[in-house]
Every structure is written in C-alpha cells, then in structure tokens.
UniProtKB/TrEMBL annotation:
UniProt name for this protein: glutathione-specific gamma-glutamylcyclotransferase
CDD domains, sorted: GGCT_like
Species: Papilio xuthus (Asian swallowtail butterfly)
GO molecular function: glutathione specific gamma-glutamylcyclotransferase activity
Alphabetically ordered keywords of this record: Lyase
Any Pfam family the entry gives: ChaC
A GO term from the CC aspect: cytoplasm
EC number of the protein: 4.3.2.7
Domain of life per record: Eukaryota
Length: 265
C-alpha cells in the first residue's frame, strides 16, 4: 500500500513546484554556471569544474524510481537509480558544481550521460548552499547565497521509468543488477556514504532504508559487499615465519645403512 500511496502522491504533485525546463539544444553559457547533483554526480561528476559546494533544493524528494540499462543495469535486468519527485515539503541534499563558461565539454558529456543514456530532462532550480557553521557573517558573502542551478530529473513518461515499488523489492533489484559502470549496489552505497560523510545532518529515509536493506540481503545471501563496490579482496600472505621450514631429521631414518670402506688414491 505504501508504494501505491507514493505513486499517487507523485501524480498529484506534478507541476506544483515552479521549475524552468531547459531545452537541450539551446543551452549555451557565456558565464560560469552551476549543476546540482543528487545521485552519482555527488561522488563521480566526470567533468572538470571550478568549485563544488554541498547544499539542497526545496520541493523535491529523492526516489530510486528511475530504471537504468547502461551504467547500472542492462536491458534484460535494469537497475534502479535516483530521480526526484515533486514534494511541497521535500528537501533533497546533494552537491553543486561550478562550471566555467569556456568549458565546452561538460554539457555535452552530461547530455549523453544523463539525457541520451539515462532518460533525464534538464531543469533550472534554486540551489541553497549548506550553511557554514564556522564562518563569520562578513565571510559568508556570495558563497552562502542561493543561486540557480541546472538539474537533471527523470519524469514518468521516459522509457526507463520503473516507478514506485515496496522497498524490499527495490533493494533486491539493486543488489542483483550490474552495468557497464559497475554494480547497482555500488551506486546506492556510495551515495549513502557521501551523504553520511559530507552532510551528516541530512535526512533521507528512502535512501538510508534501502542501504540497510541491501546490506541485510547481501549478508543473508553471503554476497561480498567489497566485491560489489569494485574493491579487490585482500589476500593475506602467510608470514615468513609461517613459511619457514622447520629442520627435521625424519628423512634421515629412511636412508639405508651402508658399510664404508677406504679407497687408496
């Protein structure tokens, strides 16, 4: 029932939050611009940038409702990645990147990664930088001011859309899917690690519930999370002391007795 309610809520919330749709072919920038990431861009942007800052956007909640058939899944077994659904009370934390106007590679790269392969569309939203707890009022200046940022969102009409499902089902799907960029579990776990390490005060029940379930199912199924995260298992070498051969005379007793005689040279 919970996932049905979420699906209904999403349908009701569409277009309630004012966001500007960007047409992919029309995006040209004469000044530096910001891109806000809330999924793999947080820990793997893949493009050059001048500055990055953690923060949030209002009016959205993160959900693993978008399918992926390239980076984290296949056509036969699509993975699940994050998108945003409109939620009047929602707050989604992530990281924004400042891209130089002369950087002509970033937007085409993102267009391929997010739009052509991922099924996302481009929007402009208001980004709120994370308040700096240790800065003085005089030092906050422009670094702490809100600014517009490009944002990539997958909408229900795209062909990869999977939509809501019970959290245990989503977790199991994430655990068993892989794509060209690695396991689907790596995507989820690295995003959860990013949130915990860089924005520990942020709340995201959907994300952290999925993390707990994936870890539980992996443990129950005896699946190595390090392998899913792309890490090689360390093979402990035996110490030299363990490898050292202890002198033994056990073979001496097997040598047959022989009589020796002197040979005159």
């Amino acid at each position: 029932m919970e996932h049905q309610k979420e699906n209904m809520d999403q349908t009701e919330n569409v277009s309630r939050i004012p966001i500007k749709v960007e047409h992919e072919g029309e995006i040209t920038r004469k000044e530096p611009f910001w891109v806000f990431g809330y999924g793999s861009l947080c820990w793997n942007p893949g493009f050059d940038y001048q500055q990055s800052v953690t923060g949030y956007v209002k009016g959205f909640s993160r959900r693993f409702w978008q399918g992926n058939t390239t980076h984290r899944g296949t056509e036969s077994k699509p993975g699940r990645v994050a998108t945003l659904i409109e939620d009047n009370e929602g707050v989604t934390w992530g990281k924004a990147f400042l891209i130089a106007a002369e950087n002509k590679a970033a937007l085409p790269y993102l267009s391929t990664r997010e739009c052509k392969l991922g099924g996302y569309r481009i929007y402009t939203v208001n980004f709120h930088p994370r308040p700096c707890l240790f800065s003085s009022p005089s030092s906050s200046s422009d670094f702490q001011t809100d600014r517009n940022a490009l944002l990539y969102i997958a909408m229900p009409e795209n062909r990869h859309w999977l939509g809501a499902a019970p959290l245990p089902d989503i977790a199991k799907q994430i655990l068993e899917c892989h794509g060209s960029s690695g396991s689907n579990a790596e995507y989820l776990l690295k995003l959860a690690d990013f949130m915990r390490d860089e924005i520990p005060e942020a709340l995201d029940e959907h994300l952290f519930s999925l993390e707990r379930l994936v870890k539980k199912f992996a443990s129950d199924m005896r699946i190595c999370l390090k392998t899913l995260m792309g890490e090689k298992e360390e093979i402990k070498e035996e110490s030299k002391e363990a490898k050292a051969v202890v002198p033994s005379f056990q073979f001496a007793s097997r040598v047959p007795d022989k009589k020796l005689r002197c040979v005159n040279m």
